[in-house]
Amino acid sequence: MNISFDELKQQIKAKIGNIAFSPHFHDTVRKRPYLSESLVTDALNRFDSYIGFQIQHLKSEIRYKIALILSGRYNLVIVLEITNQGLNIITAWKTSKKWQKAIQR
């Protein structure tokens, strides 16, 4: 299934009112105290901060890894599934833009 970046944004926009967080996300929050449900929800609602995405094909579902601008120093990466009911947030983490630029060289 090929989907454009704009189509993905539209699907997220249509389902943003019904977000579920997986147990794995809550386990991740314990390890990464900077993360919270509200941080992820707020970031997903800022559609102008979306940088790009990757599609991850699993056995029975498709997941999307979305990169968003979090601040001048960090990006936020969110892995989610789009279901009939809404969005299922699998995990999230922030990455340093400085580190990303270093590995791109």
In order across it, which strands form the biggest sheet?
A: 1-5-4-3-2
Mean pLDDT across all residues, rounded?
Answer: 90
**Structural class of the secondary structure composition?**
alpha+beta
* Spans where pLDDT lies below 50 across 5 or more residues: none
What Rg do the Cα atoms give?
14 Å
| Pattern of helices and strands | HEHHEEEEH
Helix content: 25-40%
Choose one word for the global shape. Answer: globular
Task: Considering the chains and any ligands shown, give keywords for the structure.
5-stranded mixed beta sheet; 105 residues; globular; alpha+beta
Structure description:
The structure is a single chain. It is built from 4 helices and 5 strands. Strand 4 and strand 5 form a beta hairpin. It has a 5-stranded mixed sheet. With 105 residues, it is an alpha+beta fold. The N and C termini lie far apart (31 Å).
Helix-strand blueprint:
Layout lengths: L4 H11 L3 E3 L1 H9 L5 H9 L4 E8 L4 E8 L4 E9 L4 E10 H8 L1
Parallel strand pairs: 1-5
Antiparallel strand pairs: 2-3, 3-4, 4-5
